[in-house]
Prior knowledge:
This protein has one domain: NADH Oxidase. 31% of the residues lie in helices and 21% in strands. The protein contains 10 helices and 11 strands. A hairpin with a 4-residue loop joins strand 7 (129-134) and strand 8. The longest helix is centred in the C-terminal third of the chain and has 22 residues, at 187-208. Mean pLDDT is 91; it is low at 260-267.
Amino acid sequence: MFRADHPLAWTYHRGTSRWPFNMHGLNAPTHETPPFKEDLEAATVELGAPALPAATLGDVLRRRSSCRRFASESIELAELGSLLHGAYGVLATIDLWGEFCERPVPSGGGLYPLELYVLCQRVEGLAGGVYHYVPLGHRLEVVRADPLPSHLTSEMFLGQPYLVSAAAIMLITAVVERSLWKYEDRGYRYILLEAGHVAQNLNLCAEGLGLASLNLGGFFDEDLMALLKLDADREIALYGVALGKAATGDRCERRRPLEAEGALRRF
C-alpha cells in the first residue's frame, strides 16, 4: 500500500494536498524573487539568432526514443542554441498585466521558476565547461571555464558510462521561491511538472534537429549542485537530458548500451 510502503512519498503527497480549510493565507509574498537569474559579472557566449526546428510535430513524436549509444562527435553551437530556445527560451513579449514573456512551456501562475545549465563536452565553438542559459538575452554565461574530466558526467549520473560520448548534458534546476511564495508547498508539485514539460521539449527539439537524447533522473544531488555552484537553500537540481548524435540509426540498437559499456555500471 502507498502509505505503508512509501511513507516519505505519502507524507509529501498528503502534505501538499488541498482542501478548503488550508487554502487561506496563500499568495502573500514574503519577499521579491527575481523572475530571471543572471550573473552580470560572468563571461558570456552569444548564441546567435534563436531558431526552432522545422520538423513537424508528428515526425518528431514518431521518431523520439531514448539513446544510450552516442557517437563521439560534436554538435554545433547553433544547434545547442536551438535546443535551449525551444526548451525554455523567450519566444516573444506581450502586454497582459504588464510585459509578459511568452515561453514554450506552461508554468503555474506564469512564474517560470526553472533555470537551464549546460555541461559542455563536445560543442563546436564552445569550450568544455559548465554554462548557464540566459533566456532574455539568448546567451550563455560561464559558470566553470575548465573542461570536464572525461568520466565526470558518467560518475555524476550514477555511473552511466554512455554519457561520456554525449556532446552535452542539459540540467534543469529550480529557483524554488519563485513558485513557493505563491503556492507554498504545493508549488513543488508544479515545479516538477514544469521540469517534465521542458525535458519533453528538449527531446522533441533534438529529434527535429536530427540529434538524440536521453533523460536522466538519477544523479548525486550534492555533487551535481556543487558543480553548478548552486545554493541548495535557493536553487535545486531536478532533471538532466543528455544530447548528441546517435551512433546508430536503428531505433532498437540506440536504446541499448554496448555490452562492454554496460559492464562498467557500478550503481
